[in-house]
Fold this protein.
Amino acid sequence: MASHFYLPDAAKPRHKQLKRLILAVRDMQQAGSALKAAAALKGDDPIRAHLISIAVVYYARPFVPTRGYPRISGKLERFDDSSTKKTHDFVCGWRDAAVAHSEDQLNDVEFIPKGSKIQMRTADGKEAELTLASHGEFYRGPKFPSSLIDRFIDLCALQEGRIKSETSRQKEELFHEFIKPPKTG
């Protein structure tokens, strides 16, 4: 039995949309994995914030048009309940404001001149006063709400399933054009 492979034709919008959906499944898987790893970390571990940012970028990517790919169908941004829709909108908005474009009002930077005295607690719990040897800065950026992590994980799983279903549907339509039943006698 012969096997046939059909390469997507970038000039055909349906092929480009299907390719985007296939990539979107992977995006949802990557977002979910990053979130689960972030959820396993406690407190203010800096790796946690990075993993959440990775998840936000992967999750939002299919919903943002780029030069290379169209955004996926708007029906995948409609939800049966308002809580899921709010989580989706928050994540996509967070991508725009806090991750991709780093809006000024969300980022607080203070300049600290050389020679400033800073009070801190050492690793063994003792108070210490340090003097800065060079000019410095203190940065406080936006923090993704911890209370949304579990809902975000659930949203990634939901979207992965929905996108897989849409991918299967579109594959059936597309390959129906290529695969014709054999002619009988």
In short: The chain has two domains: 13-103+143-178, 108-141. Residues 13-103+143-178 form a domain with the Four Helix Bundle (Hemerythrin (Met), subunit A) fold (CATH 1.20.120). The mean pLDDT is 85. Strands lie at 108-112, 117-121, 127-131, 136-140.
